[in-house]
Recover the amino acids of this structure.
């Protein structure tokens, strides 16, 4: 068993192991990531890759060892590490399918441009051409209506409900994640509209389960709620440990602003 230095951070309780492999070769297998989850509680594992033309690629893996395309809170944590390291306030990151620009607004507050949402049915993706803004699913004996599916770097479906904690997301989350409508699996958000500027959400992430916070779910919810004329373009998305400010601007860019934890250096056993 070898010891490896890593960072451990979180955004509103959404926790990450971050490994810098700009100057070293580190490749954890799927089984090693799953094993690591048993000793280090985290939602995603993120690699920082070698810089390319002032852009730093990152690779993101869920705790089940599967690579995913996006992680908003994790990207903000990585941007904070790199901004502090380089003593700069603007960082360009490249995920699997998009380039993100992050800004260190003030100490431990990071804003990131998550790019534009994708509404095309085969890009979300969903398995057949249906109205992505009005999806009905029967889950655990209950009917969930008017779900809004979209891709914000990864696939999400949002159901707007009176109480986002009324239903047991640990039971219905896996049913949505693995539903045959979603060929790449899907993240589920139950969203409770408090007013035009405030939403509370409960999230099930594919490959991670119920999480304390999820940046891309917050982004997806803000876009869906504005599209349904339920909220303004700028909203506060609330979680157990705080909130994220999400702005869906006139150019369809999604900006997420919120806190990150202090940078913690740990040794992990692999």
């Amino acid at each position: 068993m070898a010891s490896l230095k890593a960072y451990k951070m979180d955004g509103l309780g959404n926790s990450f192991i971050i490994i810098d492999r700009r100057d070293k070769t580190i490749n954890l297998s799927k089984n090693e990531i799953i094993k690591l989850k048993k000793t280090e509680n985290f939602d995603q594992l993120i690699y920082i890759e070698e810089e390319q033309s002032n852009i730093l690629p990152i690779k993101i893996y869920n705790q089940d060892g599967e690579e995913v395309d996006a992680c908003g809170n994790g990207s903000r944590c990585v941007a904070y590490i790199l901004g502090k390291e380089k003593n700069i306030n603007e960082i360009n990151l490249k995920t699997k399918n998009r380039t993100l620009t992050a800004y260190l607004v003030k100490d431990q507050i990071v804003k990131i441009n998550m790019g534009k949402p994708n509404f095309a049915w085969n890009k979300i993706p969903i398995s057949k051409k249906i109205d992505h803004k009005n999806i009905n699913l029967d889950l655990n004996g209950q009917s969930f209506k008017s779900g809004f599916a979209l891709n914000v770097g990864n696939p999400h479906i949002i159901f707007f409900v009176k109480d986002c904690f009324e239903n047991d997301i640990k039971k219905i989350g896996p049913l949505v994640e693995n539903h045959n409508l979603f060929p790449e699996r899907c993240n589920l958000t139950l969203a409770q509209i408090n007013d035009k500027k405030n939403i509370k959400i409960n999230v099930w992430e594919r490959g991670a389960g119920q999480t304390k916070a999820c940046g891309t779910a917050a982004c997806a919810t803000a876009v869906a709620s504005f599209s349904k004329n339920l909220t303004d373009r700028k909203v506060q998305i609330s979680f157990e440990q705080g909130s994220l400010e999400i702005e869906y601007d006139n150019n369809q860019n999604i900006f997420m602003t919120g806190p990150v934890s202090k940078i913690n250096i740990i040794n992990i056993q692999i």
Helices lie at 30-39, 72-86, 169-177, 215-227.
